[in-house]
Write a structure and sequence with these properties.
The chain is an all-alpha fold. Helices cover 57% and strands 0% of the residues. The chain contains 4 helices and no strands.
């Protein structure tokens, strides 16, 4: 078993160095990823973060957007996760 968590969601291939991508993220985003239930890629999380910030939501709004995205993703998960 690999270290991606218990999920039925499809894994995706990565072409970049995820650790280097992670290190370049803003500190609040790195902290959120550390606490996230799902194994988000830095690229996916950064996309959500940038979209929220570009809409003027700021750090708190971007973190809420990430939380909402995680809730929606968990709802799509076919397995029941114990949180």
């Amino acid at each position: 078993m690999s270290n991606i968590g218990s999920t039925s969601l499809r894994a995706k291939k990565r072409n970049s160095n995820p650790m280097q991508s992670f290190d370049s993220l803003p500190a609040p985003l790195r902290s959120w990823l550390h606490e996230a239930v799902l194994p988000w890629s830095p690229k996916s999380a950064r996309r959500i973060w940038d979209r929220a910030v570009s809409k003027g939501k700021g750090t708190h709004g971007a973190l809420m957007a990430l939380q909402n995205a995680e809730i929606r993703t968990l709802a799509r998960d076919k397995e029941r996760l114990v949180l």
